[in-house]
Specification:
Strand order of the largest sheet: 3-2-1-4-5-9-14
Distance between the termini: 54 Å
Number of helices: 12
Helix content: 25-40%
Number of domains: 1
CATH architecture: 3-Layer(aba) Sandwich
CATH superfamily: NAD(P)-binding Rossmann-like Domain
CATH class: Alpha Beta
Shape: globular
CATH topology: Rossmann fold
Oligomer: single chain
């Protein structure tokens, strides 16, 4: 097959490209080489055998020939990062939503259109995700996003009206959209756009909702996303690791090898048009446990402190229900967190050291009253 990947020079795009080419497919990578991810003077190596075109996804509308005769398109091109999206609103909407619209218009101009369009969406569309009252575990509730006032008061966890703690449970794909950030809203919009336009063009849309992807090859210099790379970058420079809130917030970390396996399966799986499928490990890990495991895997020893700081738009907990992934893709994660962190650290130690910019990123949020004050 001939396959195009927008955002193809990113972490996930390159890993997928290598796997596809190993299976004999021809791959076209389209990417604008964003400075936030690739540096101000990008120095990138295109995977051997792949074709590369440097182009902003919003401009593909003018070059539909790129997709003429392509069998499938993976759409990864997007701005990522919850916190930054809260003040770069127009930019996130432009890249993520208008970029998706431009891609769909380009496909519409093709005489020989791809048969499948696979979107890399995000668990962020769920907002706070699914919870249950232990006294009534069969009733799933979806809390509203925490307000700045709640965060300022240190009200981290969710409770029932009578004050009883709620417990996070695996989030299924049929829960309602409840985006708590501009980034999340833009990912939900991407889903709606391809679900509405692709079938009319004779293209099968597939929506994959990623949890927190990590592993060898991810950017070590983006201060706005990628908690594992941020923690590692600080630890290798002897800088302390600061944990937001009470350190008990949790995430679902999925290794790049498992994400790629799911992506490859989605290429040919019998999936209903527009079906949403979670891709994650299906296991929650607190940020405190993550920091401890990362330091153990890396061999670095730096102080870890719980700061009580927060960022508006961050969720508290969310982890994936993998029922659809198993049903439609035969998906079964193989790399547990301990193994994945060992592999990540072994790779990252051989990469250049980048100046830590996470404190600067936090200062930008404070200036805009989108994070806790100093």
């Amino acid at each position: 097959m001939k396959i195009a990947i927008t955002g193809g020079m990113g972490f996930i795009g390159q890993a997928l490209a290598r796997r596809l080419m190993n299976q004999g497919h021809a791959v076209l990578l389209i990417d604008n080489l964003s400075p936030q991810i690739h540096g101000e003077q990008p120095s990138v190596t295109v995977p051997d055998g792949a074709e590369f075109r440097r182009l902003d996804v919003r401009d593909v509308i003018d070059e539909p020939s790129l997709f003429e005769g392509v069998d499938a398109v993976y759409h990864f091109a997007a701005e990522t990062g919850t916190a930054q999206s809260m003040y770069r609103i127009r930019h996130y909407v432009s890249v993520n939503e208008m970029g998706t619209a431009a891609l769909l218009e380009a496909l519409a101009k093709c005489e020989r259109r791809p048969s499948r369009l696979i979107l890399a969406s995000s668990r962020s569309v769920y907002g706070e995700g699914a919870y249950a009252d232990p006294r009534d575990p069969g009733r799933i509730v979806q809390p509203a996003s925490r307000t700045p006032a709640q965060l300022a008061a240190g009200e981290w966890e969710f409770r029932t009206a009578d004050g009883h703690p709620l417990e996070a449970v695996p989030t299924r794909e049929d829960i309602a959209f409840a985006p708590g950030s501009v980034y999340a809203a833009s990912k939900a919009a991407q889903e709606l756009l391809i679900r509405s336009a692709a079938p009319a063009l004779g293209i099968t849309p597939v929506v994959l909702r990623f949890q927190n992807v990590y592993g060898e090859g991810q950017s070590l210099q983006n201060p706005y996303t990628g908690i594992i790379s941020i923690f590692f970058n600080r630890a290798r420079q002897g800088l302390p690791i600061a944990l937001f809130e009470d350190g008990k917030e949790s995430r679902d970390f999925i290794h790049i090898d498992d994400i790629v396996a799911g992506l490859v399966a989605a290429l040919s799986a019998d999936v209903p048009d527009g079906a949403a499928i979670n891709l994650g490990a299906g296991v929650p890990t607190t940020v405190t446990d993550l920091a401890d495991a990362l330091l153990s895997a890396s061999g670095h020893a730096v102080p870890v402190s719980v700061t009580g700081e927060y960022r508006v738009g961050d969720i508290r907990h969310c982890y994936a229900d993998l029922g659809n992934a198993r049903k439609y893709l035969g998906f079964d994660p193989q790399v547990d967190l301990a193994q994945g962190l060992m592999r990540f650290c072994a790779w990252a130690e051989g990469q250049p050291t980048f100046a830590d910019r996470s404190e600067k990123a936090m200062a930008e949020l404070r200036e805009r009253k989108l994070a806790s004050a100093d």
